[in-house]
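Thread: quick sanity check before group meeting

JM: Hey all, I'm pulling together slides for Thursday and realized we never actually wrote out the predicted structure for the chain we discussed last week. Dropping the sequence here so it's in one place. If anyone has concerns about the input, flag it before I start.
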Amino acid sequence: MGDFNIDSAARIFQLLSDPTRLAILRDLRGGELCACEVLENLKISQPTLSHHLSLLVDSGFVAARKEGKWRHYSLMPQALHGICSLAEEILKASQPEKERAHRAACAKKECSS
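JM (edit): ok, ran it. Output follows.
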């Protein structure tokens, strides 16, 4: 399956399987937020938020910067694009060669079906 790493994929999907972490990523779509702003949108405690943010920062999905006593968080688009690449790699591995060629032709508007 090419350079598809099952252990890395499992860690990514495990990280993204948590509803709280997905909610944090959703909230950060609008741009950088202070931790207190993220906390306002979720019904969790501050220590729980810190745990989830730490996991997202450590994974590279979220960036953190400190300004005074506050931490601000933002999405890291390149890491999120990596999820798309991973999904494409999974799909490529599951498609027979002929079907892949057909989809490529359709994507280029060169097929008749």
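AS: nice. The first helix runs from residue 6 to 16. The longest strand covers residues 62-67.
JM: adding both to the slides.
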